Amino acid sequence: MPFAKIYSLYVQKAERKQRTRAEVDCIICWLTGYDPAGLQQQIEQGNDLETFLAQAPALNLNRTLIKGKVCGVQVEEIEDPLMREIRYLDKLIDELARGKPLEKILRS
Length: 108
Prior knowledge:
Blueprint: H1 3-16, H2 21-32, H3 36-45, H4 49-54, E1 69-70, E2 73-74, H5 81-97, H6 102-105
Antiparallel strand pairs: 1-2
Helix pairs in contact: 1-5, 2-5
Protein backbone atom coordinates (compact mmCIF):
# COMPACT_ATOMS: atom_id res chain seq x y z
CA MET A 1 0.00 0.00 0.00
CA PRO A 2 1.38 3.45 -0.83
CA PHE A 3 2.67 5.34 2.18
CA ALA A 4 0.91 8.50 0.94
CA LYS A 5 -2.48 6.78 1.33
CA ILE A 6 -1.67 5.60 4.85
CA TYR A 7 -0.29 9.02 5.73
CA SER A 8 -3.55 10.61 4.59
CA LEU A 9 -5.51 8.22 6.82
CA TYR A 10 -3.27 9.03 9.79
CA VAL A 11 -3.83 12.76 9.27
CA GLN A 12 -7.59 12.29 8.95
CA LYS A 13 -7.71 10.25 12.14
CA ALA A 14 -5.72 12.88 14.03
CA GLU A 15 -7.75 15.79 12.70
CA ARG A 16 -11.05 14.10 13.65
CA LYS A 17 -9.76 14.19 17.22
CA GLN A 18 -8.67 17.85 17.01
CA ARG A 19 -4.98 17.03 16.54
CA THR A 20 -2.86 18.39 13.70
CA ARG A 21 -0.97 17.28 10.61
CA ALA A 22 2.13 18.86 12.19
CA GLU A 23 1.80 16.50 15.16
CA VAL A 24 1.45 13.50 12.83
CA ASP A 25 4.56 14.66 10.95
CA CYS A 26 6.45 15.10 14.22
CA ILE A 27 5.62 11.52 15.25
CA ILE A 28 6.61 10.06 11.89
CA CYS A 29 9.86 12.04 11.81
CA TRP A 30 10.68 10.99 15.38
CA LEU A 31 10.12 7.33 14.58
CA THR A 32 11.88 7.21 11.22
CA GLY A 33 14.51 9.92 11.25
CA TYR A 34 13.10 11.68 8.19
CA ASP A 35 13.15 15.46 8.25
CA PRO A 36 10.02 17.26 7.04
CA ALA A 37 11.42 17.64 3.50
CA GLY A 38 12.36 13.96 3.35
CA LEU A 39 8.92 12.96 4.59
CA GLN A 40 7.27 15.10 1.92
CA GLN A 41 9.54 13.60 -0.73
CA GLN A 42 8.52 10.08 0.29
CA ILE A 43 4.85 11.05 0.04
CA GLU A 44 5.34 12.56 -3.42
CA GLN A 45 7.36 9.60 -4.71
CA GLY A 46 4.48 7.23 -4.01
CA ASN A 47 6.67 4.64 -2.29
CA ASP A 48 4.93 1.78 -0.54
CA LEU A 49 5.10 1.48 3.24
CA GLU A 50 7.82 -1.16 3.13
CA THR A 51 10.07 1.06 1.01
CA PHE A 52 9.27 4.08 3.18
CA LEU A 53 10.46 2.23 6.27
CA ALA A 54 13.43 0.58 4.53
CA GLN A 55 14.69 3.99 3.39
CA ALA A 56 14.19 5.60 6.80
CA PRO A 57 17.34 7.50 7.70
CA ALA A 58 17.46 6.39 11.34
CA LEU A 59 14.76 4.42 13.10
CA ASN A 60 14.54 5.78 16.63
CA LEU A 61 16.14 3.47 19.18
CA ASN A 62 13.45 4.36 21.72
CA ARG A 63 10.77 2.80 19.51
CA THR A 64 11.24 -0.41 21.48
CA LEU A 65 9.69 1.44 24.44
CA ILE A 66 6.36 1.44 22.55
CA LYS A 67 4.12 -1.08 24.27
CA GLY A 68 0.47 -1.97 24.06
CA LYS A 69 -2.08 -3.45 21.72
CA VAL A 70 -2.94 -2.56 18.15
CA CYS A 71 -5.77 -4.53 16.57
CA GLY A 72 -5.75 -6.84 19.59
CA VAL A 73 -2.07 -7.78 19.24
CA GLN A 74 0.72 -6.77 21.61
CA VAL A 75 3.09 -4.62 19.55
CA GLU A 76 6.19 -5.88 21.33
CA GLU A 77 5.28 -9.52 20.57
CA ILE A 78 5.02 -9.12 16.77
CA GLU A 79 7.73 -11.30 15.24
CA ASP A 80 7.78 -9.96 11.66
CA PRO A 81 10.14 -6.93 11.77
CA LEU A 82 8.28 -5.00 9.06
CA MET A 83 4.88 -5.54 10.67
CA ARG A 84 6.30 -4.53 14.07
CA GLU A 85 7.58 -1.22 12.61
CA ILE A 86 4.19 -0.58 10.98
CA ARG A 87 2.39 -1.29 14.23
CA TYR A 88 4.75 1.01 16.15
CA LEU A 89 3.61 3.81 13.88
CA ASP A 90 -0.04 2.78 14.21
CA LYS A 91 0.27 2.76 18.00
CA LEU A 92 1.80 6.24 18.10
CA ILE A 93 -0.96 7.66 15.91
CA ASP A 94 -3.58 5.93 18.11
CA GLU A 95 -2.02 7.57 21.18
CA LEU A 96 -2.16 10.96 19.46
CA ALA A 97 -5.83 10.47 18.56
CA ARG A 98 -6.61 9.52 22.16
CA GLY A 99 -5.27 12.87 23.35
CA LYS A 100 -1.98 11.77 24.85
CA PRO A 101 0.55 14.64 25.08
CA LEU A 102 3.16 14.63 22.33
CA GLU A 103 6.01 14.54 24.87
CA LYS A 104 4.74 11.20 26.21
CA ILE A 105 4.05 9.79 22.76
CA LEU A 106 7.66 10.48 21.77
CA ARG A 107 8.91 8.71 24.88
CA SER A 108 10.90 11.80 25.93
